[in-house]
Design a protein that fits this description.
Elements (H helix, E strand, L loop, with lengths): L9 H15 L1 H24 L2 H15 L2 H16 L3 H31 L1 H16 L6 H8 L3 H25 L3 H9 L4 H34 L8 H10 L3 H27 L4
Helix pairs in contact: 2-5, 2-8, 3-4, 4-12, 5-6, 5-8, 5-10, 5-11, 6-8, 7-8, 8-10, 10-12, 11-12
Length: 279
């Protein structure tokens, strides 16, 4: 006779917890939603206010300044192609979501990463949590976003921040913990306080590693923003999703190429910032 083992109602517990959080903290989530939506609309309107050729010229000049002329020419060609394909406005919407999500993720991640680097107990506690966050399928992050913030770009920002934050925490912690012990001992010998060591020694020495984490955060944010079209986020992801629903592979590939161009630009610019401006 087979023994039936009762299943653990984990799904019911999670749903109950989400229902409780959404009912108890609805005022907080509505306030966060209003502020986030205001930020999205403001940045998006500001970028859309610029004419296409004006924003293109600014991006090309920025790429040339932080990297080299070759990246500037590549940016000009890539953005001109996006403009020609009629995907300029969706590209701006995607860029807006990526910028805001990355900013929020980095602001939250840096203090956590610094604290984990300075506290061994916190480090051992947070690493399994980051492992869990990074192995969880990306689509799962969309589920709790909807009860909290509903359908739309705010939910996309929420899911993107949670999904893209772990690399920034990991790389910040790694960079600080890899600062040579000799430098820390030298700072101690000169009587530096803990905050002085952090600000004047550890953070400057770990900056390239921290920037690598921010680069990874931007890439993950871009991938998640595209996926978040499934919950109503605007941008290039919605163009891909619309092409899938209408069985129009050509339109889907056009939007996909635009995503690739935007990803390459963001990646090259942040890598150049990490390495230092070329002279």
């Amino acid at each position: 006779m087979a023994i039936e083992i009762p299943s653990i109602p984990l799904g019911d517990w999670i749903e109950g917890g989400l229902d409780w959080l959404t009912s108890e903290y609805s005022i907080v989530t509505r306030a966060i939603s209003r502020v986030t939506q205001t930020g999205i609309d403001g940045l998006n309107d500001g970028l859309m206010w610029l004419p296409e050729w004006g924003l293109l010229a600014i991006v090309v000049g920025l790429c040339w300044w932080v990297a080299n002329l070759r990246l500037g020419i590549g940016a000009a060609l890539g953005l001109a192609l996006i403009w020609n394909l009629g995907l300029w406005e969706p590209m701006i919407e995607t860029l807006t979501l990526v910028v805001i999500a990355t900013f929020v993720a980095v602001v939250m991640a840096l203090p956590v990463g610094i604290a984990a680097a300075l506290s061994e107990r916190l480090y051992k506690t947070i690493m399994p949590i980051l492992d869990f966050m990074q192995t969880m399928p990306a689509f799962v992050y969309l589920i709790p976003a909807i009860p909290f913030f509903g359908i739309g770009s705010v939910s996309a920002i929420f899911a993107t921040v949670i999904f893209s934050m772990p690399p920034a925490i990991r790389f910040t912690t790694l960079g600080i913990r890899q600062v040579p012990v000799e430098l820390i001992e030298a700072a101690d010998a000169y009587g530096a306080t803990r905050s002085q060591k952090l600000i004047k020694v550890q953070l400057p020495m770990s900056l390239p590693t921290v920037m690598a984490g921010i680069n990874q955060t931007i890439m993950l944010a871009l991938s998640m923003v595209v996926i978040a079209a499934m919950i109503g986020a605007d941008g290039l992801g919605s163009e891909v999703w619309r092409a899938i629903q209408r069985l129009r592979p050509g339109d889907g590939f056009e939007a996909g190429i635009a995503v690739v161009i935007l990803a390459m630009l963001l990646d090259r610019v942040t890598q150049s910032l990490r390495k230092g401006r070329k002279t």
